[in-house]
């Protein structure tokens, strides 16, 4: 059986199985969720070991007829881009489930079912090769995320969930119109199939260059608005800090570690893959928004007193580097963007886990409520510091690789032909160092001025294992990035070569 299909189905089977368990057995429920999520990760490793890095075509392809009148089908497959994001998803979800046993005490069965439903939906987004199927998975994600924040979130959880829902729904409604228009135009005027409509991504990509530029320009924004909201990019970012702040720790880890990457994935797969001419035309504007997001997100992070909100705003800044790497239209820039998607998921995910670890003990996230705690919890302080350095982009850790490649790709891009973007964006690295190091210094060093901190306990075996695993990958990517970049290189070359062909014409 197709291991890609198995990877997709295991989480939804787990969500169903958990609903059949007795609600008064929290340990069994938690362990069952963990077993299903770890199994999905192990199966996804089969995809990695069997993946051929020199093939442009989608691998592990599967097709099952669905709606014949729309030429829509259950089409799934992966290339280097989606492989990396599927692996990130199946890696992050077990960690999110494992840490949840410390903070989730009510409606446990529903919580873990929703986490696994969320995993099922996210994997579906990354492997869908049918526009209608993609849209179904894209919308399905709203349901578990809405309830995870709305039920297990903080005191302003209703406000955060409604804001998250409205932003996402507006973008999705625009995107479905774009899908209908695109499917009708390609099916009716280009391939002339019997139904006059198609949702096959492979088929649409094959004829992408035949779509007139005036139609591409409109379709570009119908897709881009939805994806840019999810990234989120300035000025569409305001839902993110509220969602992060109110979400439970696992929700924040999944939101930052995986969900934001759906936006950048969509920009590559659909905007660059289907609408390359429009992507070229609007690249300077999108890159400008990315640069503004880097600086603006960093400046807002500098004034945050809540550590979780600080990390949330840092995500706005870090996702800006991914945006400029994508729209540099260079191999090194896009490769940097793809590896930075993974890097951000690891380092920011670790920061959210760390802040949650402190909150579970002290029930406060304000930096001023701490101080000198490195003396009390030295092991935790070391791992927190490593996550900070990775987020800053310290050479030797994963964050440096992605940011450097994205900046260099933007600086050297013949399509942008403007060094200013990269020069201004590089200031974001300095700003990140300021707000993260200042926060780290205030919370962990100096005198212990608050006696309430004496109750803090250092990391136990569970958190030790989690931090060691993430740290291992942060160093591995930082020291040997080619081990990971090789999987996406062929995919990246395919997209960039298509852009270069358009320029040559």
What is the strand and helix layout of this fold?
Blueprint: H1 3-19, H2 26-50, E1 59-67, E2 72-78, H3 80-100, H4 108-127, H5 131-140, H6 142-152, H7 157-190, H8 201-206, H9 213-230, H10 239-246, H11 249-274, H12 276-302, H13 307-326, H14 331-362, H15 378-392, H16 398-412, H17 420-444, H18 461-479, H19 482-504
Antiparallel strand pairs: 1-2
Helix pairs in contact: 1-2, 1-4, 2-3, 2-4, 3-4, 3-11, 3-14, 3-19, 4-5, 4-6, 5-7, 6-7, 7-9, 7-10, 9-11, 9-12, 10-13, 11-12, 11-13, 11-14, 12-13, 12-17, 13-14, 13-16, 13-17, 14-15, 14-16, 14-18, 14-19, 15-17, 15-18, 16-17, 16-18
Model description:
The protein is built from 19 helices and 2 strands. With 505 residues, it is mainly α. A two-stranded antiparallel ribbon has the order 1-2. A hairpin with a 4-residue loop joins strand 1 (59-67) and strand 2 (72-78). Helix 14 crosses helix 19 and helix 16 (398-412) runs parallel beside helix 18. The mean pLDDT is 93.
Radius of gyration based on Cα positions? 22 Å
Characterize the biggest β-sheet: 2 strands, antiparallel
- The rounded distance between the terminal residues' Cα atoms is 44 Å
- Overall pLDDT level: 93
The run of helices and strands is HHEEHHHHHHHHHHHHHHHHH
Residue windows where pLDDT falls under 50 for at least 5 positions: none
Structure class: mainly alpha
- Main sheet strand line-up: 1-2
| Helix count from the secondary structure assignment | 19
Per DSSP E runs of 2 or more residues, the count of β-strands stands at: 2
Share of residues in helices: over 70%
Task: Describe the oligomeric state of these chains in a short phrase.
Answer: single chain
Approximate strand percentage:
under 5%
Shape: globular
